[in-house]
Amino acid sequence: MASAARPLLLHVFATFAVGGPQARFAALANAFGGRYRHIVVAMDGNYACASRLAPDLDLRCEAIGAAKNATFGNVRRFRRLLRDFAPDTLLTYNWGAIEWAMANIPRVARHVHVEDGFGPEERAGQLRRRVLTRRVVLARSTVVLPSRTLWRIATTIWRLAPKRVHYIPNGIDLERFSPARASLGPADAPPVIGTVAALRAEKNLPRLLRAFAAMAPTARLVIAGDGPERAALENLAQSLGLGERVQFIGHIDDPAPLYAGFDVFALSSDTEQMPLSVIEAMASGLPVAATDVGDVRAMLAEENAPFIGPLDEAGLTRSLTSLVGDPALRARIGAANRTKAGAAFDQAAMFRAYDALWSNAPLPGAA
Q: Sign of dihedral through CA atoms 306, 312, 315, 318?
């Protein structure tokens, strides 16, 4: 194992496309600067989020793919690479990196596994094979989770020892997000419902489009983000007759100014844990209409609770309609969300926890 004044960290992601875990890593790496050395592996070869990394970091990206349906061969190869790289700590992110965790048995490097949530294949429940794999492979690892829901899953369903499982909530730079509203259209333009999401199946944006279509035509919908579902979503919007009332604006490198043009934030996902987009909406002083997934209900201010509903279109339509039609209600809930974000999700606490995690020091205040 390597030992140096500046620890070498090997980070393995299923993808390094822009998403919540990748954006969090970029924020952490940039904040810590030269204190750590990094190797980043994206199993799919997508390194789009590297654009968010400071150019002076001691960091390199390694193009290392995995053969499909060849777990044992992949594990042998990854173990050789672990020995070659000789990191102080191996950090794996979510299920897509689990073969690297397997490759670290018996231990080559200290191992930290960060689990942010589940893909569409586990929307309806935990897959038994994955549960058993996590239970065995992560038994001696440090496991980090950004949500209380995931912490309960890890300690009950995966049966990991609570002393090895740590809750570290996501945090953001609150100063980048302003509660001041900025118009995305003329002064008399209708209210804007907005969402910021990767356009993937588990985000269930068809639910949002259908819920929006069921509303009276008194609002606009802005969808920021890109992904494999975009063409199908645009076709659905046309088939629903939404026309110019829906705008797909693609990926936005810095979404912070965008939130200021929203009046309501919408989340229609089938599965989430602690979505950064909800924290960003809260910091921007927005009310949120959302499905009741992961920690979303607990994240939001109590005033927002009536607008968190079941995983169906009718409930989302009701929530959106109520918020769009009542500016005073929007302002009151948005202010409460902004206060809650300031109290619970400032990135300074997240930085302290991850700095301890990366340096193998005791975690401050972690569960």
A: positive
Instruction: Determine the pLDDT at residue 1.
Output: 43
Task: Give pLDDT, residue 123.
Answer: 65
Closest by CA to 138, choosing from 101, 99, 167, 97, is 101
Low-confidence ranges of the chain (pLDDT < 70): 1-4, 123-124, 180-188, 365-367
Which segments of 269-327 are extended strands (E)?
288-291, 308-309
Residue-range domain boundaries for the chain: 8-171+346-359, 174-344
- Contact criterion met (CB below 8 Å) for 264 and 323: yes
CATH class held by domain 174-344: alpha beta
19-44 burial code (b ≥16 CB/10 A, e <16): bbbbebbbbbbebbeeebbbbbbbbe
- Side-chain half-sphere of 110: how many Cα atoms within 13 Å? 16
Which pLDDT belongs to residue 3? 45
Beta-bridged to residue 143, according to DSSP, are: 113, 165
278's tokens: 């909800």
Query: Do the beta carbons of residue 210 and residue 240 sit within 8 Å?
Result: yes
Specify the 3-state DSSP secondary structure of 216: coil
Q: What is the pTM of this model?
A: 0.78
User: Letter for the amino acid at 357?
Assistant: L
DSSP strand E in 94-205: where? 110-114, 142-145, 165-167, 192-196
Look at residue 230 in the predicted model and tell me its pLDDT. 96
Nearest to 320 by CA among 256, 258, 248, 262: 262
pLDDT number for residue 66 = 87
The share of the chain scoring above pLDDT 70, in percent, equals 95
Backbone dihedral angles phi then psi of residue 196, each to the nearest 5 degrees: -125, 115
Domain 8-171+346-359 belongs to what topology? Rossmann fold (3.40.50)
